[in-house]
Structures are given as structure tokens and as C-alpha cells.
Write a structure and sequence with these properties.
Layout (H helix, E strand, L loop, with lengths): L1 H76 L5 H31 L1
Helix pairs in contact: 1-2
Length: 114
Amino acid sequence: MWQVRDLQLAMAELHDQFRDEETVELRELQRELEATAKACRIAQFKLRKADRHCDQLEAEKAQAEERVRCLENCVQGSVFVSSSSLSLIIIIIIIIIISVIIIFICNMYTLYIT
């Protein structure tokens, strides 16, 4: 009879040990899930930020292109343009193009850092 009781106690102890292991594993899985959810939220935030930067760059690009078209129309619309005026217009166009490139590089650098 005492052997049956010992076996029952051993089985109960094994069940308790198994439940403890399952509880530890469940807690570890919950921690991993929380960490993954946090990483996902951070990635979504960075994606939204990058989308806003992209939209801003597109708007700046469109504005710069409009300025260039306007200047081109001014040059084409002028029948008599002196060489100094033409040089000035070309310099302005180059400055606009360079500023757009610098803005683009700065924004890409900002995205790279973050």
C-alpha cells in the first residue's frame, strides 16, 4: 500500500514539475511576443516618418521643377536676351538644381541616421 502511495506522490510531483516548466515557457513566449510587438510598432512609426519625408521631398521637387519651367519659359519668351541676363538665368537654374540636390541628400542622410 505504501508503494502505491509513493508512486502517487511521485506522479503528482512530476505533474507539478511539468506545469512549472509549461508556466516558465509560457512566460518566455509572452515576453518574446511583447518584444516583437514593440519592434513592430517602432518599425511602423519609422515607416510613417519615412513616408512623410518622401512626400515632403516630392513636394519640394515639384516646386523646384515648376521654378525651372518658369525660368525656361522666361528665357524662351524673351526675344532679345543679353548674354549677361542669360548667364544670370543659367546661374539661378543651377542654384535651384543644386539646392534640390542638397535637400535630397540631407533628407536621405536624416533617414539613414534614424
